[in-house]
What does this fold into?
Amino acid sequence: MSETTTGSTTWLTQDAYDRLKAEYEHLSGEGRTELAKRIEQAREEGDLKENAGYHAAKEEQGKQELRIRQLRHLLETAQVGDAPVSAAGEVSLGHVVTVELAGDEMRFLLGSREVGDAAGLDVYSEKSPLGSAILGRKPGDEVTYTAPNGREFPVKVVSSEPYTG
It folds into this structure.
């Protein structure tokens, strides 16, 4: 498993922790330096009111600083290792879940988006309508969940296995 959140604790595998720490170190070191140089170069071009390069760089700086804060918080509060074990087959954070939804079969990781690309799977939060509807269910359980558009959909849990990526 790469990352899941239980209460206020975020569980990370060592690989996920190392990947996020490397991103944090780059953004807060080299990334900040590179962006500061771009802002300075754009500032030297003259009138800041009509300087699109300057405004774009400042906007990027704001996004980068937000990401640095998110990563710092995540790394400071992370528990590195395995997430708590759930009952056999029970849908829980860090599990790869297969469901039947409106006649189609879907397979996804139930957890945090930080894992998305690394897992090669779609990721659904446990707080999403689908995630919260199936959390704690077992294979064979059928539930109904309400999609963001207000429509209700039947969903059947087919399988739930711990993510071992």
Q: What stands out?
A: The two ends are 6 Å apart (CA to CA).
